[in-house]
């Protein structure tokens, strides 16, 4: 019983002292992700790593995003109907998006 209590306390201490991950598996969160009072617009360049026109999801490996102080990373974005037409995995793109602290929504995306 004593070992179980000590183990449980060790887990609790570890959970309280470890920082939260900076990205999520779905790729829609980034470094320091917190809800913003107002969504921010930003832009970037990168390449398409995955695309699903049916759900409006696109994954981009992009360079640093200065407006949000983001490092280069691969993350997912949502897109509106028609924005992903003519794009395919591997395309190099320039894009603008809105970040609300939780999700990134493509405003414009063009092949380079």
List the helices and strands and how they pair.
Layout: H1 2-17, E1 40-52, E2 57-62, E3 73-78, E4 92-99, E5 104-111
Antiparallel strand pairs: 1-2, 1-4, 2-3, 4-5
Describe this structure in words.
By secondary structure, this protein is mainly beta. The chain contains one helix and five strands. It has one helix spanning 2-17; strands spanning 40-52, 57-62, 73-78, 92-99, 104-111. A five-stranded antiparallel beta sheet has the order 3-2-1-4-5, with no helix packed on it. A hairpin with a 4-residue loop joins β1 (40-52) and β2. The longest helix has 16 residues, at 2-17. The termini are far apart.
Mean pLDDT rating: 79
Portion of residues within helices: 10-25%
The main sheet comes to: 5 strands, antiparallel
Number of helices: 1
Computed over alpha carbons, the radius of gyration is: 18 Å
**What order do the strands of the largest sheet run in, or round the barrel if closed?**
3-2-1-4-5
What is the end-to-end distance? 63 Å
Strand content: 35-45%
List keywords for this structure.
1 helix; 112 residues; globular; mainly beta; five-stranded antiparallel sheet; 5 strands; disordered N terminus
């Amino acid at each position: 019983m004593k070992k179980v209590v000590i183990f449980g306390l060790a887990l609790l201490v570890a959970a309280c002292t470890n920082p939260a991950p900076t990205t999520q598996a779905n790729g829609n969160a980034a470094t320091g992700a917190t809800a913003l009072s107002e969504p921010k617009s930003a832009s970037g360049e990168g390449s398409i790593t995955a695309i699903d026109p049916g759900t409006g999801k696109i994954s981009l490996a992009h360079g640093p995003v200065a407006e949000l102080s983001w490092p280069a990373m691969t993350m997912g974005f949502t897109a509106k109907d028609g924005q992903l037409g003519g794009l395919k995995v591997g395309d190099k793109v320039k894009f603008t998006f809105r970040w609300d602290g939780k999700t990134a929504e493509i405003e414009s995306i063009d092949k380079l």
